[in-house]
Amino acid sequence: MSAQRVRSSLGRPRERGRGSRLRGAIDRLASSSPARFAIVVFTTLIAVETLLLSLPIAARDGKATPFADALFTAVSTICVTGLTTVDMATHWSTFGNVVILVGLQVGGIGVLTLASIMGLIVSRRLGLRQRLLAASDTNLSRVHHGPVIEAQAVRLGEIGGLLATVAASALIIELALTALITPRLLLEGFELWPAIWQGFYFAASAFTNTGFSPLPDGLAAFALDPWMLSVIAVGVFLGALGFPVIFTLARHWRTPRRWPVHAKLTLTVTTGLIVLGGLAFWALEAGNRSTLGGHEGVSQPLTALFMSVMTRSGGFATIDVNSMNGSSLLVADMLMFVGGGSASTAGGIKVTTLAVLFLAAFAEARGYSDMQAFERRIPVDVLRLSVSVVLWGATIVASASIALLQLTGEPLDRVLFDVISAFATCGLSTGLANELSDPGKYVLSATMWAGRVGTVTLAAALAAQQRRQLFRRAEERPIVG
After folding, report:
1. In 286-428, which ranges are continuous DSSP H helix?
2. Residue 323 C-alpha from the chain's centroid
3. Taking Cα atoms as reference points, which of 208, 200, 197, 211 lies closest to residue 176?
């Protein structure tokens, strides 16, 4: 007995030492490059999701799903995109649907926030750099030349609790949406438990801006239903606002003067784009009998507004996107490329990026040296970051479009629409995704991955370190414009 105790006492420190070394290694990786760590975690989740969806148990027919389709679905799920190469309502079994539902919930939290949670669980502590990373992802702090100068919502020490609050808030909103959707499904003839399950599926898919539908015909049965469309649109709208804006509205909804500039810009630009997009779709598609032209009365503006909300990154559609006019597809391209708010479940370059570019142009036209919004000055480094985001996004979209044009031979408008939808993690499609060969699926999967990881995070991960130049060269102005 004494020998066994000795061996046991000798073994425990070794086990603890191995666990400590593992946590230490992961913590060093997270500390040395938080952005790279986030990408590694995010990519690992996609690999796990792909493996699970490749299992025969994940398919309804009991056969293994081809790797290209499993990978595409996994990326689309974790990236909360909504593009599919298989029929989501009939291909997957209960196990597969549960895997997909969990995946889109995890993806909806956000790549950087998710990495911070994983780092907290593994290393059992949240270091300063990880806290700054989490604060950056939830847009809770403003950064000027490196150090954080002002916390908009919480202190760094509260970030760990904030991450749990983000997940809890998402679940509460989804449950509220489920409570609104389920009665409508019951009235449609669904039994209780299927109605609850599909109601939660719709709610989670709407709030995470995924756009997956548990029904074979999608929203076809509710294409003219104001209640169903309104609830789903509200879910997409809230998910596209971002958690910082949701927290601001929850805490200071009676005192708009206390809202930070980020919240004001997000709400103003998002609302404006939804209204302008709805008017554009209504004007351009009113005479198209294959889309809005076949609707009567208030269903035309309702459908147009719903489609405008879906371009925030929602992905649901009540009309045939492939039948839309080329002018409407171009409008949708622009709206999808912009996407939703920062630190949200939406993709795109984000509405605040667009706002900063317009503010810079306005300041230049008026001869102002500073960008101003809501009686606040916006630092110039935010403009540099916005320009970088747009250039990275445009480069990704252009590269993927060229590759798919070469692989498919399809018209530019169809290819560009699906590529921007993938980059902006929107999920609307002309049907091109279902027709792609395996190489085309890989190209679109990579586009979804790059869009969800985020152009800023991708650029930060590729940069070895931020260099500080100790001298300034002589100034000379090139001719611009």
Report:
1. 299-310, 326-338, 351-366, 380-408, 412-423
2. 26
3. 200
Which residue is listed with tokens 């895997």? 99
Handedness of CA 441, 325, 398, 238 (dihedral sign): negative
Asked whether the whole model's pTM tops 0.90, one would answer: no
User: pLDDT tens-digit profile of 429-457?
Assistant: 998 988 899 999 999 999 999 888 876 56
**How many residues does this entry show for the chain?**
481
How far apart are alpha carbons 35 and 47 in whole angstroms?
Answer: 18
Express each pLDDT in 144-157 by its tens digit. Answer: 333 333 334 444 44
pLDDT one-digit tens code per residue, 267-311: 999 999 999 999 999 999 988 888 888 788 788 899 999 999 999
Is the Cβ–Cβ distance between 85 and 75 less than 8 Å? Answer: no
In contact, 78 and 103? CB cutoff 8 Å: yes
Enter the tokens of residue 28: 């060093």
Q: Tell me how far apart the terminal alpha carbons of the chain are, to the nearest angstrom.
A: 86
> Do the Cβ atoms of 261 and 248 come closer than 8 Å?
no
CA distance 140 to 146: 15
What is the helix (H) or strand (E) element at residue 143, kind and residue range? strand 141-143
Joined tokens for residue 10: 């000798």
Question: What is the CA angle 220-223-229, rounded to 5?
Answer: 120
Give SS3 for 148: strand
